Amino acid sequence: MTEPAAKGMAIRKTVLGQAHVARAEAAKSAFDAPFQALITDAAWGHVWARETISLRERSMLTIALLAGLGNDHELALHLRATRNTGASEADVMEALLHVAIYAGVPRANHAISIAKQVFAEMADAERDAP
Description:
Helices cover 81% and strands 0% of the residues. With 130 residues, it is mainly α.
């Protein structure tokens, strides 16, 4: 494993959680292994690993971009990751207000609906945890 890939895997686990990454690795096949290697190396090992801005700030940028592009599945994943990045619900709302202005109100409205659902699920899970 290359240094960026190793660093990327560590950051990926930090941000998305050990369980998510373990599930993704277990589901990896010969078909999608090159894609998994690419995102671990490039996205996580190069971009997320940069020290210029914090994981919290990267989280907010990612959420805004995913919402603006309408990538709902990935948006929900990164909303759940806020528990690991330090981005608060208020931070997410600030990012989504930017989405409304720069990418459109319908995109932001839909993303806010997803965020409300994800944050409610997270609160329920936290309340039910031992």
